[in-house]
Amino acid sequence: MAKLHFRPYIPNQTVLFPGRIDENIASNDPVRIVNTVVDNLNLDNFKKLYKATGRCPYHPKMMLKVIIYAYMNNIYSCRKIEKLLLRDIHYIWLSGNEHPDFITINRFRNRVKEEINTVFTQLVLVLADKGFISLDVEYIDGTKIESMANKYTFVWRKTVEKNRTKLMDKIRILLEQVDEAIAQENSSKDTSVEFTPAMLSDIVNELKEVLEHQPVTKDKEQKKVIREKKKQVRELEEYRDKLMEYDNHLEVLGERNSYSKTDPDATFMRMKEDAMKNGQTKPGYNLQTGTENQFIIDFRLFPNPTDTLTLIPFFHSFQHRYNRLPGIGVADSGYGSEENYRFMQDNGIEAFVKYNYFHKEQRPRYTPNPFHAESLHYNAGEDYYVCPMGQHMNRIGTRRDKTASGYISESARYKAQRCEGCPLRGSCFKAGGTVL
Ligand code: SF4
Questions:
Q1: What pLDDT score does 85 carry?
Q2: Residue 264: is its pLDDT beyond 90?
Q3: Which of 49, 47, 89, 50 minimizes the C-alpha distance to 69?
Q4: For ligand 1, what atom is nearest to the CA of residue 423?
């Protein structure tokens, strides 16, 4: 039997000439790309985030490389990154064998939160410079990101406004009962008076002062009246606090219709994943992303769930970032609206954006409504439509509609001359015999 030989195994050996840390990292490993790209970034903006005194901080380039590489590998926990900095050769090489702890990593992450957007822009410009992207075309789509907040922490604008109106009425009625002089000033009938918490505080102070200077009495009836007034003042204080709460809610809501108490930036919206299939709204954000050649070139979070309303602000975000607009905009039918088409036309953006009914029209069994404007013959020279009964429909005016974003949409209105006795009147007259 041949003699068995094992390779030498000496775990605690020392080496005479230390090897390079990266000699076992492949030349095309993504970690090398992160290293090169971050080395080419200008991080001068980060300097203002550090103090000149105290212990020397870790180099921001090193910290940024480590965090970007961890995020690329779906690792977001600072404690996990701290461990990898001791165990994983890629992280050890990136960090130059430095070992920042999880607190330092987290502090850095929070410190550069504002500046990271500039880093992203620089990164995209580097890609454009190297010819990977042209920034001439932007493919846009959005997704809803669920917030970590509980789904029962909602505040709805309509409820707040309704309760606030009820509270105003209660305050007016109470003031009428509390003091005659004040009642005259704040008549319950005058609903135009909008009470503010400051106004109520002044009234409460005034009433307290009056009560304090009341002469001491032994009369039971008088004592009862004073007790009652004190109770009313307490009630008024409660109303004031409630009013303050409602005003705070409205301030946080801003333009939105809802928000979460534990994550005030999150708005309630329907998520794509609906496990319960009940269309429940959850707190979240509408993340819009622009890509080109599979690289993300722009992103922005929106509080409103409707994609149609996000397209123009998203193009503005692109313009703000790169001082120009893309030449071509590509998006799905969720972004098709007159306002968006008009914006793209006015700004020289070639639109590859379907309209809302596009997919419906592509169905094999789709039959167009014969009474809709697009099904009728239009004579452009003399500006009239021909209705299904062959009558000329002449232009009678223009209708103006205001969209949720404040855009005024104009549509021409046409009407047939005589519709009396028409056999198609029942189907046609839903729209009053007019074509828009
Ligand atoms: S109701 Fe008037 S507009 Fe409609 S088909 Fe008849 S004639 Fe034409």
A1: 97
A2: yes
A3: 89
A4: 6
For ligand 1, which residues put their CB under 6 angstroms from it?
387-389, 391, 416, 419, 422, 424-425, 428-429, 433
Q: Which amino acid is at 197?
A: P
Same domain, 25 and 75: yes
Q: Which atom number of ligand 1 is nearest to the Cα of residue 435?
A: 3
Q: Which residues contact 117 (CB under 8 A, 6 or more apart)?
A: none
301 shares a domain with 239: no
**pLDDT score of 188 more than 60:** no
Ligand 1 centroid distance, CA of 409 (Å): 26
- Domain region containing 413: 373-435
Q: Are residues 386 and 345 in the same domain?
A: no
Q: At which residue do the structure tokens 């039997």 appear?
A: 1
Could you read off the pLDDT of 143-179 as tens digits, one per residue?
Answer: 999 998 988 999 999 999 999 999 999 998 888 877 6
Tell me: the pLDDT tens digits for 214-238?
Answer: 777 777 888 888 888 888 889 999 9
Dist. CA 406–CA 237, nearest whole Å: 39
Q: Considering only CA atoms, which of 396, 403, 241 is closest in space to residue 311? A: 403
Residue nearest to atom 1 of ligand 1 (CA): 425
Residue 181 is predicted with a pLDDT of 58
For the CA atoms of 228, 232, 237, 242, the dihedral, rounded to the nearest 10 degrees, stands at: 140
- Please identify, among 361, 381, 401, the residue that sits at the C-terminal boundary of a domain: 361
Q: Is 398 in contact with 412 (CB distance < 8 Å)?
A: yes
Residue 129 falls inside a structural domain: no
- Best probe residue, ligand 1, of 422, 429, 434 (max atoms within 8 Å of C-beta): 422
Taking CA atoms, 245 is separated from 160, 248, 253, 268, in Å, by: 9, 5, 12, 20
Query: Is residue 279 a contact partner of residue 270, using CB atoms and an 8 Å limit?
Result: yes
Which atom belonging to ligand 1 lies closest to the Cα atom of 429? 1
∠ CA 368-371-374, nearest 5°, is 60
